[in-house]
Amino acid sequence: FEGYDLVVVGSGLFGLTIAERTAAELDKRVLVLERRDHHGGNAYSEVDPDTGIEVHRYGPHIFHTSNERIWAYVNRFTEFTGYRHKAFTLYQGQVYPLPVNLATICQFFGRYLTPDEARALIAEQAAEIGQLPPDPSHEEKGISLVGRPLYDAFFRGYTAKQWQTDPKELPGSVIARLPVRFDFNNRYFNDTYEGLPVDGYTAWLSRMAADPRIDLRLNTDFFELADAIPDGTPVVYTGPLDRYFRYSGGRLGWRTLDFEREVAPVRDYQGTTTINYAEESVPFTRNVEYRHMHPERSYRGDRTVLVREYSRSAGDQDEPYYPINTAGDRDALRTYRMLARQETAERNVLFGGRLGTYQYLDMHMAIGSALAMFENRIVPYFRDRRPLG
Ligand code: FAD
C-alpha cells in the first residue's frame, strides 16, 4: 500500500466522488477498498439474466436533484433519460396515486373536490386529535396531518410493515410530515432534474472510477488490512461508523430489506415501476417492475422481472439500509461523532457517506457532501498542508 496519497474505504457514490476529484483535480494516487465484489455501493445495477432488464440490486434508485453543481458534476459521467417517477398504492383492491394528491383524495372519497374543499375536509378530519401531546405517537401525529381516513388507509398498515411495530408504539418523530398535495401533481419527486443514467448505473459508476490514478480493490475489507496502510496516510472511511470503533458505543440500529425476485411470463405485470401495498395483511411493502424505468429500451416482450420488498430490522449480518434513529441510537451517535473527531485529528481519518455518518442520504446528497468534503478538507490538506482535523 505504499505510494498512495489517499485511501478511500467504500466505492459508493460518496467514496467514488472523493476518489475521482482527488485524482483528477489534485493529480493524486488513490486506493479505493471495497468489501463487496462490485463497485458502486447501493446504486449498483446489473442485467437480469432471464429477462435482460436492468435491475438495481439494492432497491430502485432514481436520480433527482435541484442543485446545479451536482447536476453538472454527474453529467460528466453519464447522460440521463427523461424518466419521471410516479408511484401508486394498492388498498382494498383499488389503486391510488402517491404521494397523496387531489386525485387520491377525490378517488378515495368518491367525488370531485376542489383544492379548497379537499383542504377543508382534511383539516376537519385532522382536528379530531386536537392539541398534540409533547411526544405524540406516529398515529397521533399522522392523523393530525392527514386525518384518520387517509391515515388508516395509506399509512397505518404500510408503516407497521416498514417498522414491524404498531404505529401507536412508534414515535411521531419518525414522520416529519406526510406529504399531501391539493392539486393533481402526482410526480413523486419535486426536483428540477430527474432521470436514469442512459446506459445504466454501472456504466456511470465505472466512468467515475476509470481515472488511471485510481486503484480499485474489490473483495477487500478495510479492517483486514488496516495495519498495512502506512501511518499518517489520509483515509476517507464510508463504512459503518460503529464498526470502525468496534461497536464500543453500542450498535447503531438499521432497517434492512429482503428482496424476492420473480420472473412473470407477461410483457407488463403491473403497468408502472412501483406499487406500494398499503394493507398490513400483505407481507411485502412494495413491488417493483424494473422494465418501466426504461420505456425507451427494447426489452423482450414475453417476460418481465418483479422484485418484492420486505422490511425488517437489520441483524449483524444484514445490509444496513435505513437508520432507525431511536433515542438510544442518537446517544450512541453523539459518542461516535466525538470519537470520529478525535480520529480525524490524531490519525487523518475522515468519515463520510450514509454509513459513515449514520443518516439516510439520497444519491445527490451523498455526492454533494463528498464534493463539500473534497473542497473544505481534502484540497486544503494537499494544497496548503492544512491538517484534516
Ligand atoms: P453506499 O452506497 O452504501 O456505499 C458504501 C460502500 O462502502 C459499500 O459499497 C460498502 O460495501 C462499502 N464498505 C462498507 N464497509 C466497508 C469496509 N469495511 N471495507 C471496504 N468497503 C466497505 N437515492 C436516490 O437518490 N434515489 C433513490 O431512488 C434512492 N433509492 C434508494 C432505495 C433504497 C432501498 C436505498 C437503501 C437507498 C436509496 N437511495 C436512493 C440512496 C442511495 O443508495 C445512497 O444515496 C447511496 O448509496 C449513498 O452512497 P454512499 O457512498 O454513502 O453509501
Automatic annotation (TrEMBL):
GO terms for cellular component: cytosol. One of its GO terms (molecular function) is flavin adenine dinucleotide binding. InterPro entries: UDP-GALP_mutase, UDP-GalPyranose_mutase_C. The keyword Nuclease does not apply. Its cofactor is FAD. Keywords: FAD, Flavoprotein, Isomerase. Coiled coil: none annotated. It holds the Pfam family NAD_binding_8. It comes from the Bacteria. PANTHER family: UDP-GALACTOPYRANOSE MUTASE. Belongs to the UDP-galactopyranose/dTDP-fucopyranose mutase family. This is UDP-galactopyranose mutase. It comes from Micromonospora echinofusca.
